[in-house]
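Weekly puzzle thread! Below is a chain. First person to post its structure in token form gets bragging rights.
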Amino acid sequence: MISRPGQDAWAHEAASIVRLYALTDGRTRARHSLSLNTVLGPGPRSPRQLTEESARIVGLCRQRQRPLVEVAGLLGLHVTAVTVLVSDLIDAGALTVPVPDAPGAGSDVQKLQALSAGLKRKWHNAKAG
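Winning reply:
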């Protein structure tokens, strides 16, 4: 078989896309509205059957609170895939979006994201009117 220039790069990119598709079960949107700067912390529950990537995410956030973009960078995964996985872990109670205690310690956006994640977890079938 004759190899063409760029064929290896194309094959590697195709394999990467298939892997991301498999990691997220084909989903490209997270249930929760999370930004790159959303800080993640450990949740109250430890789900038993996690994928390798999800277990690594939970492990990183148990070491210390981390922004979503840092988690994606440490895992070497696309941010969109990590956002979908993190959203699933928030629903499972394995991760939380901590709300800063002190005034001015975090942004209002962070507080709203934490509130939104908690409400969606409690009333997952509710729709905005």
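Puzzle host: Confirmed. Bonus trivia for everyone else. The longest helix spans residues 7-23.
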